[in-house]
Amino acid sequence: MKKIIQILFICFLAVVIGFSLSGCGSVGGIDEGDDGDGGDGGEDPAPQPSFNFTGTVYGQNGSPFGGVGVYVFSPDYTATTNASGIFALNIAAGEHVLLTSRPGYLDSYQIFNLPEGGSESQPVLLLDAPVTPVNVLAATGTTTPIVSNSVDDSTATLSIPAQNPASFAVNGQTRSSESISLINVDLNAPLPVPLPSPATLAPENVVIGGKQAPVSLVSIQPALLNMNTAATLDMPNPVGIGVTRILRFDPETHRWQPVVNTAGTTAPILQGGVYGIFYEEQRIGSIRGSAAPGSVIWIAGEMVEVGADGTFFFN
Q1: d(CA 218, CA 106)
Q2: Cβ atoms of 247 and 279 closer than 8 Å
């Protein structure tokens, strides 16, 4: 009889413990039998956003680069890369310019087309900037011109007067001072911007049928800098060609635009961004010019070697 009572007592304890366990609910936020996706009886998890434009930004060493500002025009979209160098945006279909920017590095511009209902992924390479930014007070401007790094023994200079009103605007934000860089782009390295061509020039500005080889390129950063009073930019001209105009790449319109009131290599400017002087001929189909003897230049995506007399011809 005693043994039967012990057995009945053990069975009673098992039933009580079973009910207790079934009433414990979830452990660690996941219900028993839940596969982690929310389970039965709870609210469905919020849907993950879908992105149609993504990319990864890399440094010169090939490592992903976090903390990089990503801007897409137009209309305007912004993002910042995560620790893995990845950015993701949901943007409208059409042609856009992708601008990637980080202090201490050369701004990069890319043109891409996003088809209706499609998606796009862009890898981006950021090159080290060979200059240290100069902090400029809007109320006083630069006491001496900002001088770029030297390429082929040539430099660019930028003189910024006192601003009236005494402020700069960067990406729509008003600032009393700004760190400004003037970078003379090395044309033997990957270029940070698409070259002028019928696709990147307004029809009235096209003077040749293909891409135009740069004589010099400079990048004024921040790219989205706007000034109230015009600064004076003096472009380098290492080969000494006759300069008839200076072009600026406008990310808003996705086109190279002539800078007005250009006098040779000097121009008044109100904006940051990339400015360039290019080999240009009014005759369609051929380009003649001069450069350092034995050097190599790129015209319309093709390599042209400069002769021993310092001249070249491309047809």
Answers
A1: 10
A2: no
